[in-house]
Design goal:
The structure is a homodimer. By secondary structure, chain A is α+β, with helices and mostly antiparallel strands. Chain A has helices at residues 3-28, 32-41, 49-56, 60-72, 92-104, 116-127, 137-149, 163-171, 200-212, 229-239, and strands at 47-48, 76-81, 84-89, 129-131, 134-136, 153-154, 160-161, 186-189, 196-199, 216-218, 225-227. The longest helix of chain A is centred in the N-terminal third of the chain and has 26 residues, at 3-28. Chain A binds a DNA duplex through helix 4.
Chain lengths: 249, 249
DNA sequence: TCGATACTTCGGCCGGCGTCGAAGTGTCCG
DNA sequence: CGGACACTTCGACGCCGGCCGAAGTATCGA
């Protein structure tokens, strides 16, 4: 009735409006199926609608509806090719949001896989995998920690690349893009290791280089990757790794 | 029927289980009221249930239910004092998640405030406010960019504190905690300025120091803060700011 | 001891959303 | 040209969850 009351409700409306935009974004990931889609897409590649449907165990029509929701919400980008609908995460920000949620979500019990293939699949993922555009798993944290030990990374005042780190990347043929808005170095909590691995433009560049130089290859169509003999050799020489677990076949 | 099919559905169950944990976390923020609560709590302080209820414009009983949900989900920590229920964000990780969502949520139209008090409230927030445990608004980005210009921060290879930055903090009586898991320096996208301001342990330390040294004081019970004459003086001398907008009364 | 205040519990209402299968459209390939 | 395949649209079903007000409990202050 009075100005006071009217003003109070106007303020509340404003508060709720802000809340609604955040809630809308969170709502995109507040469904088990949509979250499963995004976790799968965290491998950084494009999937077809059917692949995602089978992956998450839902009908194709259900997948269609969810993909519409996710793309309209701006979390996914899509590309149509013939009768296929390819979708991928819209960009690094979207991937970071999914990572963030996954890292904070309570650790699940994982009641010990019962089949042999499930066991090997899981151990391959824990050993080495991609996390959107950078490396994760034992491989990811090993590289990260080896870089820190060799003085290529500074975690105390950073995270940041040291001058030695810039040289080390240069020797691989990787140069830093100047004035990028995205942080060069960003910590990303590893699911399986529970220690941070390297993300940001540098993490992405190292991952890209590892693929291009044949250090790693994908295992089938999963997020898991396999370290090649060339990769072992390169890690051992470039990071002074000796008798490290990641070097075992 | 066959082992193949059984294995495939087992894998889908596993996928859905992972999806469900992420969805549960996202679901906490997928409601306009709960999101509004968390955005309010982003000021880093503890609010009572009633304050939040009035802030978001819902009944007290509704607020109770939401606070139960949020605390059980691990996003909020609560403290009971007599007949009051104080809640705050559970920690830096929770605050970062809320920040992340808020930064990525589509910019809202904000149809020009109609009342005088709404206008002044908004401009005070845009000028200087806290963002969980660090400074935001024009003040936050001004400090951040001035530090970068003076060579105290390195955005190219970092973000990271330079040796000069360590000295500068030392002159304020701030020392870096060694071997912290939390990054010393982290960029946090500013709502109003759309440029990053400084977060991480260093951002928090600077904010704490600004309060303790009387550089800033809170405006009422909002997130907004006001720069004191001592604060103006300190910024001008310590960061070489001359005729900068933030120094105007 | 009594009233005021802060929060909680309960019951009931209602809307929204995720799910599916069946039928429809578009694309590829033989 | 016709069959196979990928995706989409539609309708129906069911359930979950947010909202409120009223009544109940706990705490504070006089």
């Amino acid at each position: 009735m009075t100005e006071n009351v009217r003003e109070r409700t106007a303020a509340a409306d404003e508060v709720r409006a802000e809340g609604r935009t955040v809630a809308a974004l969170a709502g995109l990931l507040a469904d088990a199926t949509r979250a499963a889609f995004c976790l799968a897409l965290l491998d950084g590649r494009a999937w077809t609608a059917n692949e995602l449907a089978r992956h998450a165990g839902v009908a194709a029509s259900t997948a269609t509806a969810h993909l519409n929701t996710l793309t309209e919400g701006g979390l996914l980008a899509e590309e149509r090719q013939g009768r296929h609908r390819y979708v991928r995460l819209a960009g690094p920000e979207a991937a970071e949001l999914v990572e963030h949620l996954a890292a904070l979500a309570p650790r699940q019990h994982t009641p010990a896989p019962r089949t042999l293939s499930a066991t090997t699949r899981r151990s391959a993922m824990a050993r080495a995998r991609t996390c959107y555009d950078h490396l994760a798993g034992l491989l990811g944290v090993t590289i990260t920690e080896a870089m820190a030990e060799r003085g290529l990374l500074d975690w105390e005042r950073g995270p940041a690349l040291t001058p030695a780190g810039v040289d080390w990347l240069g020797a691989l043929g990787i140069t830093l893009p100047p004035g990028s808005k995205r942080p060069a170095v960003r910590p990303c909590l590893d699911f399986t290791e529970r220690r941070p691995h390297l993300a940001g433009t540098v993490g992405a560049a190292i991952c890209r280089h590892a693929f291009e130089a044949g250090w790693i290859v994908r295992i089938g169509t999963t997020r898991a990757v396999s370290l090649t003999p060339e990769g072992r050799q390169a890690l051992a020489s470039r990071l002074d790794l000796r008798h490290h677990a990641i070097l075992a076949p």
